[in-house]
Amino acid sequence: MRAKHFLTVGALALGMTMAAGAAQSAEYGPGASDTEIKIGNTNPYSGPASAYGTIGNVISAYFDKINKEQGGINGRKINFVTLDDSYSPPKTVEQVRRLVEQEKVLFLFQTLGTPPNTAIHKYMNAKKVPQLFVATGATKWGDPENFPWTMGWQPNYQTEASIYVKWMLENVPDAKIGILYQNDDYGKDYLKGIHDGLGDKAGLIVLEQSYEVADPTVDSQIVNLKNSGANVFFNITTPKFAAQAIKKVADIGWQPVHFLNNVSVSVGAVLTPAGLDNSKGIISTLYAKDPTDPTFADDPAMKRWREFMAEYYPKGNLASSFNVYGYGVAQTLVQVLRQAGDVLTRENIMKQAANLQDLEIDTLLPGITISTSATDFRPIEAMQLTKFDGTTWVPFGPIISAPGS
Amino acid sequence: MVVNADLPPPAAADSAGFTNFIALYRRPIAIFGLVALACLLPFLVSDFRTFQLTLALAYMMALLGLNLVTGYNGQFSLGHGAFFAVGAYATAVMMDRWGVPYYLTIVPAGFITLIVGFLVGLPASRLEGLYLALATFGLALSMPPILKKFEGLTGGVQGIVLIKPDPPFGLPLSADQWLYFFTLAILLVLFWLAWNLLRGRTGRSIVAIRDHHVAAEAMGVNTTLNKALIFGVSGFFTGVGGAVFAIAIQFVAPDSFTLFLSITLLVGSVVGGIASLSGAIYGGVFIVFIPNFANDISQAAPWAIYGIFLIAFMYLMPNGIAGFISLAWRWIGRILLTRT
């Protein structure tokens, strides 16, 4: 009896020692160890969307910097495995299965494009592998209730649309709204944002016109919109059509309050071909610093970005907003990993990604920070309005958060 | 055997009989071995590799169709990616919109593509060579915008997400393994169909049209109808491939079926051996595994490596892998038979 009791106590003590040992050492999911954190990614390095490939490169370069200058995160090097998917959804599925099942990455980060991410959306959530900070502006990525393993990063299209509407309702009396949108998921996402933002004032919309990506021009739609008597114009178009629309609006002498979506704010690709004079007064939104904006020439944060580019990604284009974007999103991830500490499980990565509080990122506009929670999977929800003065975008007014956020 | 009947010395009869047996029945033996290997593979490799093999099987179906129309019938098609898309979307729409079980969608998807193929084939039969290639090129080019246009049915740019089928009857297989066997069974049926088609009168007219269509016509072969029909049949094979592909990937979207897919299929077909049925097998393996292999060799320039592979294959095996293997095959047979 006594011996048995002794044994029990001994076993208990041993068990407790072991439990204590386990609590001290770290907890790891697949792809994590004492020395490294393995992260998977797909990017279009080849094919029609390969212009986006620079985002994958700049992220790789940023992790090189973290590994070299700080010895990784909490003593673990980041092993960033990035594969080419050519923006082709079946290829994305194949590469992602390879990353999850063969390479055994801890999670996916910044997989790029709406169709590729849609293709793996269900798989990632069935496998319970985080699909973090996806590189697309679609609204569906912020749905923790149905897809608790997927999270976006940039402000989504509906958020942006509702910001225009909010400002318009306060500043444009007797608004009569005309809308031109691209007839696909992206255009309709914006359209929904406008309708939701207007709520019971949806009657202010006098005409909605759509176009197909394959259409040669949008001239007739612009004429229809002018003839409808609209004095507010929502220009929900991709760069080529945005340039056409801006030019046509000027040609027929229509002078509405002109909102241009963030997708097409490029001065070089949109406003210059449309005519800089024609573009004067157009209103859009920004959330990240424009690398060409002279305002930020002496900004210490952007200086850090330029130094980083010079040292770790000298091939990268300093005027490209994609390189600003990749740097910012990589910084966000580094914070998530820091917070995760020694508990590098998939559950904890997701938990920490949903636990960011007023995180400041070098490349975001002053006043815009990142916050998430278990019910808020939309990291960036604020933007600033900006007006084109004929040469550059000039931000104005306060930082506006999406209504209801 | 007839030629060598008097040669084998009595003492060596047993071993000679065995080599003779192998030499004569090497084709069925090889086919049996190949099928046995195909059945074993999923138990030897990971689920991910099994999934890749399933994709290869789906491509093999498409290549079978392409080989029929281009290799045997001599009609160039740069548009088979479009047929692949039609089959994939037919299955996706049936499964997602109408709740049809996946296994019932394969044959209808094939027949829908058959009709599309026939309708494309009718005018195409009046076009020759390069002109036909351009016409089918146009078909491949216009497929993604068409799919985006009919958004109500196809889900537009967003595409359609499908659910992966589980193995039935509580079979002790993973979902990937089950889908592999499901696909393999269909592929075997398709091979049998293609083999039967080519063996008979139809097969002879198909090849006759390729070799000399005027002579074929003089012999009473209706070239226009036959050409359109073979386009339809080719569409059937490719559509079934697309259907299985959609189920394996669990997703269809216009961006999945770009012009590049059509070119990939043609490359696979030529590398495999375009005027042969077995070429489809090698082509399918090539399509799935060579780009991945190239990527493993060089992350920086995978397409350059791919290009080198392609050139090497074409240079070393001008009749495709199938042509090379049938050469080797005859050579082995000759050695075995002369030894007896």
Q: Major β-sheet of chain A, in short? A: 4 strands, parallel
Spatial strand arrangement across the major sheet of chain B:
1-2
N-to-C series of helices and strands of chain B: HHHHHHHEHHHHEHHHH
Low-confidence stretches of chain B: 1-12
Could you explain how this protein is built, in words?
- The complex is a heterodimer of chains A (405) and B (340).
- With 405 residues, chain A is of the alpha/beta class.
- Chain A has helices at residues 2-24, 53-70, 89-102, 114-127, 157-171, 185-198, 219-227, 239-251, 267-274, 300-312, 321-340, 346-353; strands at 27-28, 36-43, 77-84, 107-109, 131-132, 177-182, 205-211, 232-236, 257-260, 283-286, 343-344, 382-388, 393-401.
- In chain A, the strands form four sheets. A four-stranded parallel beta sheet of chain A has the order 3-2-4-5, with helices on both faces.
- In chain A, helix 2 crosses helix 11 and helix 8 runs parallel beside helix 9 (267-274).
- Chain A is globular.
- The model of chain A is unreliable at 12-24 (pLDDT under 50).
- Chain B has 340 residues and is an all-alpha fold.
- Chain B is 77% helix and 1% strand.
- Chain B has a two-stranded antiparallel sheet.
- The interface between A and B is medium-sized, with 30 and 29 residues.
What attributes characterize this protein structure?
heterodimer; A: 405 residues; alpha/beta; 4-stranded parallel beta sheet; B: 340 residues; mainly alpha
In short:
Chain A has 405 residues and is of the alpha/beta class. Helix content of chain A is 42%, strand content 17%. Chain A is globular and about 70 Å long.
